[in-house]
Amino acid sequence: MPKNATSGQGSVLVVGYKDTKDVLFLVFGLAKAYEKIKADGKVDWTDVQYLLPILFSIGPAIEGFENVSIELKMATKEEGEELKLWIKENVELNDKSVEEFIEACFAIVLDLWYVFRTFLFVDGQSMLKNETGKVITKNEDGSEDITIGG
Q1: Contact between 26 and 55 (Cβ < 8 Å)
Q2: How far apart are CA 43 and CA 22, in angstroms?
Q3: How many angstroms separate the Cα of 71 from the Cα of each of 46, 122, 135, 145, 148?
Q4: What string of pLDDT tens digits covers the 150 residues of the chain?
């Protein structure tokens, strides 16, 4: 399930969907708050109650934003299925057709990403490399490693 990222010192970074979920939680929370705020047709101090629940999600979403791309690059198909389920459980809008559309879009994008990602690996070597020198390698056992600085 979690993958390892190692640096020259041998430190390990666990990669999962935590930061992706933090960012999505903030986005979904803002959408829900907007929906509630516009419901009465005016913006006033009573609308603060809809913003307070998402206030504490801003910090984690901003801090982990840079890791979202790594999480998506490293995630397995099974983790993608878990993320789809998490999205279904956390998108709650009054307009159910919009909610279902958002869920379907995320599912399609994740499925397309896993198909696309399959073609990024050749002979166990990753073609994913970013400007910081992180290289993602897919091992024969299916696990993946991020090598930093090498």
Answers
A1: no
A2: 27
A3: 38, 20, 13, 12, 15
A4: 334 444 444 444 445 688 999 999 999 999 889 988 988 888 888 999 998 888 889 999 999 888 888 888 777 778 888 888 999 888 888 888 888 888 898 888 888 877 777 766 555 555 555 455 556 666 667 676 666 554
Q: What are phi and psi of 8, to 5 degrees?
A: -60, -25
Name the domain count of the chain: 1
Q: How far apart are CA 25 and CA 95, in angstroms?
A: 18
Instruction: Provide the token pair at 111.
Output: 């499925």
- Say what the pTM is: 0.64
The two structure tokens encoding residue 123: 């002979």
Task: Give domain status of residue 11, yes or no.
Answer: no
| H or E segment and range at residue 4 | strand 4-6
Look at residue 9 and tell me if it is in a domain: no
Assigned token pair, 18: 């935590």
| CA–CA gap between residue 22 and residue 73 (Å, rounded) | 17
DSSP state of 18: H
